[in-house]
What we know:
This protein has about 70 residues and is mainly β. The chain has a single domain (about 15-65), classed as CATH 3.30.1330.30. Helix content is about 0%, strand content about 45%. The chain contains no helices and four strands. A four-stranded antiparallel β-sheet has the order 2-1-4-3, with no helix packed on it. A hairpin with a 5-residue loop joins strand 1 (about 15-25) and strand 2. The protein is elongated, with a radius of gyration of 16 Å.
Amino acid sequence: MATMIPSIGEKRGKQIVYTIEECMSCGEKKKRAFTLGDYVYKKGGQCNKCSGSILITMIYAEPMKATQ
Length: 68
């Protein structure tokens, strides 16, 4: 069965955007909130574990969980 593609202007729930940073030396990954100016393959600082270079490898959104 085919899946429905949301139409233009269709309301989706609120989403939180996250950035995944990864050390190119040891592979350590860290998830943090997206900040303006982030983009994939942007170089970051140094890894706290091994002092290697950090690179943004992924940016994605997760739906907000409803509070009851």
